Amino acid sequence: MGPRSVWGHLFRGWGVREVSNEGMGRQRFRYSRRQVLGGAAAFGLSAGLHGKLALAHHPIQFGLTPVFLDSDLEIMSELTQYFSGKLDHPVSSVKRRTYQEITSLLLSGGLQAAWICGFPYVQYRDRLSLMAMPLYKGEPLYQSYLIVNKDSPAQNFEDLSDQVHAFSDPNSNSGYLVTLHLLAERKLSPSGFFSQTIFTYSHRNVIRAVSSGLAQSGSVDGYVWDVVAKYEPELVAGTRVIRKSEPLGFPPIACSKEMRNDKYVGLLTDALLEMKEDPLGKHILDTLHLDGFVAGDSSNYDAIAEKMDAVREFL
Amino acid sequence: MISLRLLPSTWPMLVKVPLVVAMLMSLMSMGVSYMIYDRMTRSQQGALEKLAETYLDGVSAALMPHVIRRDSWEVFDTLDRAREKYASVKATYTVVALTDGVILASSNPARFPLASPLPDQLRSPFKDGQYLHINAKEGVAWVWRPLVEADQTVGDLFAELDIFHILQERQRVLFTLFFGAFMLTLTFVLIGYLAVHRMLQPLGMLNRYVENIRHERDEPLPPGMLNEKTEFGMLFGRFDAMRVAIRERADLAAKLAEEEKLALIGKLASSMAHEVNNPLGGMRNAIDTIRKHGNDETVWTRSLDLLERGLEGIANVTRATLVTYKGGSDPEKLTFRDMEDLQFLVQHILKRRNLILRWTNTLPQDVYVDGGSVRQIALNLLLNACEASPNGAEVFFRTSFLDGQVNVIVEDQGGGIPENVKDQLLNPSISGVPESSFGLGAWTVGMLTKRLDGTIAVETKAENGTIVTVRFPSRGG
Q: Distance (Å) from the C-alpha of residue A144 to the closest C-alpha of chain B?
């Protein structure tokens, strides 16, 4: 996927105006925007109504973005087991390749709740409700890292020009927006700064891409990099962090506003907030290297919103 | 001598047979090894082709949607995962290039970076249209697969497979084959050597017995060797029969030589009687003269001188005859005097035929040769020369000792030596004993000369006459 289509991808997700040189027709954009907003809203309403009737018989669908490890099937199993126990109702986890798929499912009512990224949250803050924020090192905050190959001579962001850069996902804050914001501050676009950009759709894959030399640099979730460093030290050994962003709101667990008062969503929120009190929950938190969950506040994501606005303004 | 040993025809059977075994075994083992190696190489090539085919099928199928979308990450991810999934293939690198020759992704981005032009060295081996190329020198195989979707080529997949272990296995098999063959050949050569050594043992013994015969040592074969049931037993039987025949002939020849000597003495006896008789007449006259004129001191003295010369002549003849008949004073040597005495033994024929003997004897006092035999040879030649000479002719006799050799040269002015007699002289054989006494003399000379390791040369002169030269080596001393 080339950088131009990435931009298109981003705009489709945001529903913002299109850059004239992207080669995509306005007509097409409008169609895309309507499809996402109108279609998804209509589907979400319908699904939400049906969802309420059906919840009594069907498992609660809990969405997960590929935030951390690729091989997190065990964590997913333990999470659903924990939630099912707490809710006294079957809970199944849903995983998709991209953030957009999870966000669309959440907005359309296909998921009752999802662990999403701060960037989609601020994009759809008016339609999403914050259920809980993870605590990492005691704070509901994390950072975005700029990494380079261990053999790269690069020392700062400027040294990354004319290189192949790996992003995680076009809807990721740490894996895309933070770097985009750095470029916007310098009045630069990714295609104007990097020789080529690639999306790996996973933070771990960003580390793999940079470590292998496929990309010379990458934008990665700092929390994921830290955790991978503990589980797969040989993988992160091929990379070196050259820049850490300021602390930003940790990827939250959210639900659509329509579902906020749902009984099971309430129980799910309680299960998250009490997780550290439960043995299985504690085990899950230890595995994820998290301290627990707090209710949090939407204002924790203002900084991300500001970056989004700044990028939007530049573009 | 060395060049003679280098010549294979001069090598002993003990070397030749194991060598032939080694050559045949080597040829056979090389042939068998080549067939096994060739079959294994084909089999490995087939297996490698199938393995590469499976690998390319699997990877290209997984890659196709990502290549169509030109998704570098997914292509890399697929290649990266394929490395673990197809670990047995041992791909050192896999590269996916787009149709414009730009690398979309590779399993080794550090070596083949994203969006860089495809190195020509990756594509060049496949210009002949083959999908698999083996580079034995580097221990790798290069494979290529065009990525085709709906009749449209969207890219190319190149991979290098590490086949060092396969080639190493080949080398191991080849080494095992050749080492095994070498050891087997060595074993067979050793067995061949021992077998031939054992088989040739009787021949070695036979060789020893043949040598014995050559050196006139008569040693009968042990009865155990004369087993008629075996090849060698039969051979030994025949050899023993031959040995007995040779011994009998040798005995006969010795007897004949002895008889010839006696015949010679017999002939001499009559001449000797004549030689003795001549002075006896003079001596009887001297005695009568003394009786009649014994008072005359002059007559007395002359008669006594005559008696003395007569007795001396008789003494010479009898001594020479004795020496010839019984052997010299010492059979191990020839003395100057012994040779000188021969003149007295031919006096009768010289006188009868009115011949003149030109005698030259420059021998030292003692020469270490078989004196009796040399005298017999010289006397025979001298008598033959006198017999062959016309009346009043000259007969030359020269004997000398030069460079450790005794030379006896007898020259006559006769009509030449007959061919059959000459043959008896030059090539006498035990089986060819002549019947005539004349030939017997020549044959005896030939046989005695041969026994003394001497040489005979016969020269026919342009004018009438023959020169016979006999040379004997001295035993030193």
A: 21
| Count of domains observed in chain B | 2
Six-digit token pair at A313? Answer: 């303004």
For residues A59 and A63, what is the distance between their CA atoms, to the nearest angstrom?
Answer: 12
Question: Does residue A56 fall inside a structural domain?
Answer: yes
Give how far A215 is from chain B: nearest CA, Å: 8
> Phi-psi bin for A137: left (phi > 0), alpha (psi -120 to 50), beta?
left
Reported ipTM:
0.73
CATH number of the domain where residue A174 is located:
3.40.190.10
A32, A12 Cβ separation under 8 angstroms: yes
A152 inside 8 A of chain B by CB: no
**Would you call B71 and A1 a contact, using CB atoms and an 8 Å cutoff?**
yes
Interval B236-288: pLDDT, tens: 888 888 888 888 888 887 788 777 777 766 766 766 676 677 677 778 878 88
Calpha distance A94→A73 (Å, rounded): 11
Give the integer Cα–Cα distance in Å for A78 and A256.
24
Residues A180 and A170: beta-carbon distance below 8 Å: no
Going by C-alpha positions, the residue among A87, A126, A94 that lies closest to residue A107 is: A126
| A292: containing domain | 31-139+249-300
Task: Scan residues 113-142 of A and list those with Cβ closer than 8 Å to B.
Answer: none
What is the model's pTM? 0.59
Q: Residue B70 CB: number of other CB atoms within 10 A?
A: 17
Q: B330 is written with which tokens?
A: 């010492």
Query: Which tens digits make up the pLDDT trace of A133-186?
Result: 999 999 999 999 999 999 999 999 999 999 999 999 999 999 999 999 999 999
Instruction: Examine the domain organization and report whether B262 and B130 are in the same domain.
Output: no
Asked if residue A184 belongs to a domain, the reply is yes
In a domain, B206, yes or no: no
The alpha-carbon gap from B106 to the nearest alpha carbon of chain A, in Å, equals 8
Whether A162 and chain B come into contact, CB under 8 Å, resolves to: no
What sections of B10-71 are H helices per DSSP?
A: 13-68
In a domain, B329, yes or no: yes
Residue B316 neighbours by CB distance under 10 Å: 17
Q: Is residue B225 part of a domain?
A: no
Q: Distance (Å, rounded) from C-alpha A188 to C-alpha A185?
A: 8
Which of B171, B187, B218 terminates a domain? The answer is B171
**Is residue B430 in a domain?**
yes
User: Which of A207, A211, A214 is the best residue to mutate to test the B interface, defined by the most B CB atoms within 10 Å of its own CB?
Assistant: A214
Question: How many folded domains does chain A comprise?
Answer: 2
Q: Please check whether residue A217 lies inside any domain of the structure.
A: yes
Burial tier of B4 (Cβ tally within 10 Å: 0-12, 13-18, 19+): exposed
* Residues B320 and B434 reside in one and the same domain: yes
Q: Which domain holds residue B367?
A: 251-473
Q: Is the CB of residue B361 less than 8 Å from the CB of residue B399?
A: yes
